[in-house]
Amino acid sequence: MTPVQKHLIVHGRVQGVGYRWSMARAAEALGVRGWVRNRGDGTVEALAVGDAKAVDALVQWANRGPPEARVERVDVLESLERAHVPAGFEQRATV
Protein backbone atom coordinates (compact mmCIF):
# COMPACT_ATOMS: atom_id res chain seq x y z
CA MET A 1 0.00 0.00 0.00
CA THR A 2 1.34 3.39 -0.99
CA PRO A 3 0.53 6.12 1.53
CA VAL A 4 -1.27 9.25 0.36
CA GLN A 5 -0.07 12.75 1.16
CA LYS A 6 -2.38 15.74 1.57
CA HIS A 7 -1.50 19.36 2.19
CA LEU A 8 -4.21 21.26 4.10
CA ILE A 9 -4.80 24.98 4.62
CA VAL A 10 -7.53 25.61 7.19
CA HIS A 11 -9.33 28.98 7.15
CA GLY A 12 -11.50 30.56 9.82
CA ARG A 13 -11.13 31.05 13.56
CA VAL A 14 -8.49 28.35 13.94
CA GLN A 15 -5.70 29.97 15.94
CA GLY A 16 -5.78 30.36 19.71
CA VAL A 17 -8.47 27.67 20.06
CA GLY A 18 -6.35 24.52 20.50
CA TYR A 19 -6.61 23.57 16.83
CA ARG A 20 -3.00 22.37 16.40
CA TRP A 21 -3.01 20.34 19.60
CA SER A 22 -6.38 18.79 18.79
CA MET A 23 -5.36 17.96 15.22
CA ALA A 24 -2.17 16.28 16.44
CA ARG A 25 -4.21 14.10 18.85
CA ALA A 26 -6.72 13.22 16.09
CA ALA A 27 -3.91 12.36 13.67
CA GLU A 28 -2.16 10.16 16.22
CA ALA A 29 -5.43 8.31 16.95
CA LEU A 30 -5.87 7.68 13.21
CA GLY A 31 -2.24 6.63 12.65
CA VAL A 32 -1.54 9.60 10.36
CA ARG A 33 1.97 11.05 10.21
CA GLY A 34 2.95 14.62 9.39
CA TRP A 35 2.80 18.05 10.98
CA VAL A 36 0.61 21.06 11.72
CA ARG A 37 1.51 24.73 12.22
CA ASN A 38 -0.03 28.18 12.44
CA ARG A 39 0.68 30.63 9.63
CA GLY A 40 1.15 34.35 9.95
CA ASP A 41 -1.98 35.00 7.88
CA GLY A 42 -4.25 33.40 10.52
CA THR A 43 -4.66 30.03 8.81
CA VAL A 44 -3.45 26.63 9.96
CA GLU A 45 -1.35 24.49 7.61
CA ALA A 46 -0.87 20.74 7.84
CA LEU A 47 0.72 17.82 6.01
CA ALA A 48 -1.03 14.47 6.47
CA VAL A 49 0.54 11.20 5.33
CA GLY A 50 -0.86 7.70 5.69
CA ASP A 51 -3.52 5.25 4.62
CA ALA A 52 -6.08 6.93 2.33
CA LYS A 53 -9.02 6.22 4.68
CA ALA A 54 -7.14 7.58 7.70
CA VAL A 55 -6.02 10.73 5.86
CA ASP A 56 -9.58 11.28 4.60
CA ALA A 57 -10.87 10.91 8.16
CA LEU A 58 -8.38 13.56 9.32
CA VAL A 59 -9.51 15.88 6.52
CA GLN A 60 -13.10 15.40 7.72
CA TRP A 61 -11.96 16.21 11.27
CA ALA A 62 -10.16 19.32 9.96
CA ASN A 63 -13.45 20.62 8.56
CA ARG A 64 -14.92 20.54 12.10
CA GLY A 65 -11.89 21.18 14.31
CA PRO A 66 -12.06 21.45 18.09
CA PRO A 67 -15.17 22.89 19.79
CA GLU A 68 -13.91 26.50 19.96
CA ALA A 69 -12.84 26.64 16.30
CA ARG A 70 -15.00 28.05 13.52
CA VAL A 71 -13.74 26.46 10.31
CA GLU A 72 -14.78 28.36 7.18
CA ARG A 73 -13.09 26.07 4.67
CA VAL A 74 -10.23 23.63 4.20
CA ASP A 75 -8.17 23.73 1.01
CA VAL A 76 -6.87 20.22 0.32
CA LEU A 77 -4.13 19.58 -2.22
CA GLU A 78 -2.25 16.45 -3.17
CA SER A 79 1.16 17.05 -1.63
CA LEU A 80 4.32 16.72 -3.65
CA GLU A 81 6.55 17.38 -0.63
CA ARG A 82 9.29 14.82 -0.43
CA ALA A 83 11.02 16.23 2.60
CA HIS A 84 11.36 14.20 5.78
CA VAL A 85 7.98 13.17 7.16
CA PRO A 86 8.12 12.65 10.92
CA ALA A 87 7.47 9.23 12.43
CA GLY A 88 4.49 10.71 14.30
CA PHE A 89 2.54 13.94 14.01
CA GLU A 90 4.31 17.15 15.08
CA GLN A 91 3.16 20.61 16.07
CA ARG A 92 5.53 23.04 14.39
CA ALA A 93 6.32 26.70 14.98
CA THR A 94 4.39 29.45 13.25
CA VAL A 95 5.65 30.55 9.83
Characterization of the model:
With 95 residues, this protein is of the alpha+beta class. It has one domain (4-44, 52-80): Alpha-Beta Plaits (2-Layer Sandwich), CATH 3.30.70.100. The protein contains two helices and five strands, in the order βαββαββ. It has helices at residues 19-30, 52-64; strands spanning 4-13, 33-38, 44-50, 70-78, 89-92. It has a five-stranded mixed beta sheet, with helices on one face. A hairpin with a 5-residue loop joins β2 (33-38) and β3. α1 (19-30) runs antiparallel to α2 (52-64). The mean pLDDT is 94.
What's the structural blueprint in terms of helices and strands?
Blueprint: E1 4-13, H1 19-30, E2 33-38, E3 44-50, H2 52-64, E4 70-78, E5 89-92
Parallel strand pairs: 2-5
Antiparallel strand pairs: 1-3, 1-4, 2-3
Helix pairs in contact: 1-2
Strand segment tally: 5
CA gyration radius, whole angstroms: 12 Å
What is the residue-mean pLDDT, rounded to a whole number? 94
| Category from helices, strands and their pairing | alpha+beta
Q: How widely separated are the two ends?
A: 33 Å
So what's the CATH class?
Alpha Beta
Task: Classify the helix fraction into a percent range.
Answer: 25-40%
| SS summary, helix count | 2
Shape: globular
| Low-confidence residue ranges | none
**Percentage beta strand:** 35-45%
* Helix and strand pattern: EHEEHEE
CATH architecture: 2-Layer Sandwich
Structurally, how many domains make up the residues? 1
Indicate the CATH topology: Alpha-Beta Plaits
